[in-house]
Amino acid sequence: MFAGKIILICFASLALNLFGSLIAEVFGLNVYLDTSGTIFIAALGGYAPGIAVGFFTNLLKAVFDPSEMYFCSVSVIVAIFTAFFARRGFFDNFLKLLIIIPVLTFITGTLDLLISDFLNSTSFIKSVNEFEMGFTGNILNECLDKSFSVILAFVLLKLTPPRTKKLFSVLGQKQAPLSDEMKRVINEKRYLSSSLRTKTLAILMLSSLFASFSIALISYLLFKDAAIDERIKTVDGMVTVAGSEINPYRVDSYIKLGREAEGYKSTEEKLYSIKNSAPDAKYLYVYRILEDGCHVVFDLDTAMVEADKPGQVIELEETVKPYREDLLAGKPIPPIISDDEYGYLLTLYKPIYDGSGRCQCYVAIDFSMEPLVEYTHTFIIKLLALFAGCFIFIFAIGLMFVENNIILPVNTMAYCARNFSYDNMTAREKNIERIKNLKIHTGDEIENLYHALLRTTENFSRYLEHLQRAKTQVADMRVKVFAMDEIAHKDSLTGVKNKTAYTEEIAELDKKISAGDAEFCIVMVDVNYLKRVNDTYGHEIGNTYLKNACRLTCAVFGEENVYRVGGDEFVVILEGEKVSLSKYFVAQFKSEMEHKLSNESLALWEKISAAVGIAFYEPAKDKTADEVFKRADKEMYANKLAMKAARTD
Q1: pTM of the full predicted structure?
Q2: C-alpha distances in Å from residue 606, one per residue of 318, 371, 457, 491
Q3: CATH number of the domain enclosing 626
Q4: What's the CATH code of the domain at 265?
Q5: What pLDDT digit, counting tens, does each position of 201-229 carry?
Q6: 636 burial type by CB count under 10 A (0-12 exposed, 13-18 middle, 19+ buried)
Q7: 23 lies in the same domain as 153
């Protein structure tokens, strides 16, 4: 029943896309109107339903217009970004919703135009020029399209019953719905750094990429071979026709008398006609090949190269020399593909025999292969556009399967095992009941593991009662020690490490310096305007301002590296491989800070201003870590003075 309802809503979303597309086509609108259903279902059900609806929308449209299939990757990306924003609450508020419109507009406008230009153009340069010319107009159309689609999806979400939303929240899960606490802990990913999730997704991605790449490579090689074979057939037909126009019994007189020979001019005109019938036929010539070289019988002028005279003896081309003995013997030779000063050419020699079977000359055509390169590039682009959407669709479905059949059950069992309380019988029974309530029913080894865990837990619980009293006292002492250690080393306002922790870290660095094993840098961050915020808005807002500054510092440098050493002062200590990235981190911090300062929608205490200084440990110069700190502090102070000099308020 629930599955049927989900499928029905997905089909309704697909129908909404197709209906919108039909309306746009019937009325000749400059918009597509084919993503409303995708945006709605992605916001409602997440990545997999959104990707599926977007993919099948283009698949069904491709029945009438095959080129639509190349745009499936665009629809898939729309679903991904929509689900991403929806998970972060952007569809809960109309003002937040307006942020999604320009993002989707830029993404779809850019990708649509790029794919269209590459599909319709055989030249990369031409495609880039067409893209630049049509970008602005296409963005305006996409803005209208995405505005309508996003707002319509927002309205539909508001009309969707909460029960239906809850139904989609557990889509595909093979167990009972999770509690809010369990969801929070699992989403925090407080498990192993190299988790089963990471390994499984890596294998899934690599296998999907390998399969997609293999199919794409095979398709490309088959296409290239088929294109070359088709080219060879074309040239062979032209050479055969040209050979039929040459009288083998007059070759001697053609060489000796040239244009004065009987029938020479009329034959030459026919050869010109044959050459001009194919724009890619670059050169057409007729040679008698003897020991001393190639004796010109016919050689047609081109715009770039003047023809050789009849009877003139020229050297055999380098690309043809490997077949010299066969040519002297009057035998056929295989087609030759070369890339030299004359261009990327396909050359085909055809012998002309007289009535006695003696080869009198060879007719040859050099056929340009440059269009084949352009066709190949276009084919690759089409292949990439097609396989991008297919790959993401397959990966999303595989991801949902892996998530619901492996990752989620294993993580929930891990959560229950990690949070199992041994304090008393009541607590243990409650935890056993929590494991029972998981109700995992994947029907495979995961379900067997679940039942084994449940049985083991129940059995083990029976043996713990007589040990619990002794362990309770020890556990309480451990909790208190841990809490005291946390209090001693964490700043109470911001939650980062405090000056005590910083002092201990400096001592550790000094030990490394003494051992000759130190590699670190220190970044000094001093928050500006804290006093002004405190005086203007009060200390509560000032604390908020300070926490925002700390949050930005942690986001860029990593919370584990940040210490609050003063009222408005933070120190960042980076070691090992992170040292080489430190300047990038500082630049990113300043960039994020400037972005916030220029954001008019943020309150004053949300706009962070801070001076930054950085110093690196130099083995030949620094005896203690404090010397590095002083240089960083000096750099920070110089930055603060520069910021004051640049102020205009």
Answers
A1: 0.50
A2: 73, 57, 49, 21
A3: 3.30.70.270
A4: 3.30.450.20
A5: 778 778 877 877 787 778 778 888 888 89
A6: buried
A7: yes
